[in-house]
Amino acid sequence: MSVEDKVRKVIAEKLDVDIDEVVPEASLVEDLGADSLDLVELMMSMEDIFDVDISDEQAEKLRKVKDVIEFLEAL
Amino acid sequence: MEAGNIRTLQKVAVTGIGMVSPLGLNLSESWEGLVQGSSGIGQISRFDTKGQSVTIAGEVKGFSAADYLSRKEARRTPLFMAYALAASRMAVEDAAMPEGWTRDARAGVYAGCGIGGLEVMDENFRILAERGPGRVSPFLIPHFIGNMAGGMVAMHLGLKGPNLTYATACAAGAHAVGEAFRRIRDGYADVMLAGGSEAVISPVCLAGFSAMKALSTRNDAPESACRPFDRDRDGFVVGEGACFLVLENLEKAEARGARIYACIEGYGAGCDAYHITAPEPEGQGMAACMEAALKDAGLAPERIGWVNAHGTGTPLNDVCETRAIRQVFGIHGDRLSISAVKSMTGHLLGAAGAFAAGVSAMALFHGVLPPTRNLENPDPECDLDYIPNLARKQAVAAALTNAFGFGGTNACLCMVSGSGSERGNP
């Protein structure tokens, strides 16, 4: 599974939204309904699944689905 | 000067009841179970009880949080919050509240909760130990703190009045109902949602109560494990669930044509100031609390026909409560009917007092008193009429509901049937 597919799947599961809504341009907060606590939990899941550390500063910049994908692909 | 002295005291009616209990997922199932003398106690299914000295509890069976919450919320919301929301929604529906009632900014939520989201703490202690602080959930704190049940109810129903949670252990639900009653009686609100919720059937909680030797160890006979006032009782059984009541200013409830289950007329609260867990042996604190409720209602003890007892099935509680009832009622004690519904549901802890209040309102409304299950050989020191095993059809004009908690904290509610007008008091 590609990074993109994995990221979209995790976001869909954690935010309980349809995977078709998890498009690269979608905003985690505005479009997919995440609140601040959801975001923390989501980043923890990404850290677990991709075995990486995401600092708070980095996490703050990840606003859209594509931000998350690009960030993880670059590692 | 207390507000009660400068305002006209309002009458307070119970107009809606919602329940989630080991006997059922709503009021009618729970009430039917109580009237039948059924047991909601069984082997614990929620976790592996290997190594536990107690393997039984009163679990809520078949509950789906998704019936009341979005899928995302349902998946992560701890049970004590979900039960509270379910019971509250059902209570509001049961009361047939008029459209727009939540626009009254004085309408609030008083909730009882003894412990809180223990399963969340349990899981995150494990995460902390195994994976470190960076993996502890951001939902740990909001899902652990006991006031979040009341918070969630307010959030979902849109209730912007005071939102208070009483953490008075096994008396919490009764304190919540009593304090909400006073708030309406004193004119601070016309409608309140009041109740309690608890869900702590978890390994650490069971082990903790077991370590206190507070629980029945009758693991091979769960349905007869909780035996209030019986000679062979050996402790309480942990239960779970929630009950919320819609309380309304009687005059306004009648004006909108609401069904009145019963009216709350008195409330007593006090403390044994004696021991962290053991009740004061002569039941003086319990008695003082019942007397306070009677005085608050302006009723003589002889007007009471039924006591919905705390009746946990622990060796100490049942004797002390009996002594307290004797002390308050004297010879009239022989004419009282008394029920211990924990014999059927187990002990709903922080929800117990609210559940009992809901049961009392139903009993007064229907003229049916639930039995004390498993009462086969009464303890010689428990010499009152506890309605053994079979419900009793009996119209009662006034009743007391007891709830006592660790820390010596006591609560007692005094309810009258209907709108209270037939009791003949001014």
UniProtKB/TrEMBL annotation, chain A:
The modification O-(pantetheine 4'-phosphoryl)serine is found at S36. 4'-phosphopantetheine is transferred from CoA to a specific serine of apo-ACP by acpS. Keywords: Cytoplasm, Fatty acid biosynthesis, Fatty acid metabolism, Lipid biosynthesis, Lipid metabolism, Phosphopantetheine, Phosphoprotein. It is found in: Cytoplasm. GO terms for biological process: lipid A biosynthetic process. GO terms for molecular function: acyl binding; acyl carrier activity. Residues 1-75 form the Carrier domain. GO terms for cellular component: cytosol; membrane. Pathway: Lipid metabolism; fatty acid biosynthesis. Its main location: cytoplasm. Carrier of the growing fatty acid chain in fatty acid biosynthesis. PANTHER family: ACYL CARRIER PROTEIN (PTHR20863), CARRIER DOMAIN-CONTAINING PROTEIN (PTHR20863:SF76). HAMAP family: Acyl_carrier. Belongs to the acyl carrier protein (ACP) family. This is Acyl carrier protein. It comes from Desulfobotulus alkaliphilus. The lineage of its organism: Bacteria, Pseudomonadati, Thermodesulfobacteriota, Desulfobacteria, Desulfobacterales.
TrEMBL record, chain B:
SUPFAM superfamilies: Thiolase-like (SSF53901). The keyword Lipid biosynthesis applies. One of its GO terms (biological process) is fatty acid elongation. Its EC number is 2.3.1.179. InterPro entries: 3-oxoacyl-ACP_synth-2, Beta-ketoacyl_synthase, Ketoacyl_synth_C, Ketoacyl_synth_N, PKS_Beta-ketoAc_synthase_dom, Thiolase-like. It is an enzyme of class 2 (transferase). The keyword Chloroplast does not apply. One of its GO terms (molecular function) is 3-oxoacyl-[acyl-carrier-protein] synthase activity. This is 3-oxoacyl-[acyl-carrier-protein] synthase 2.
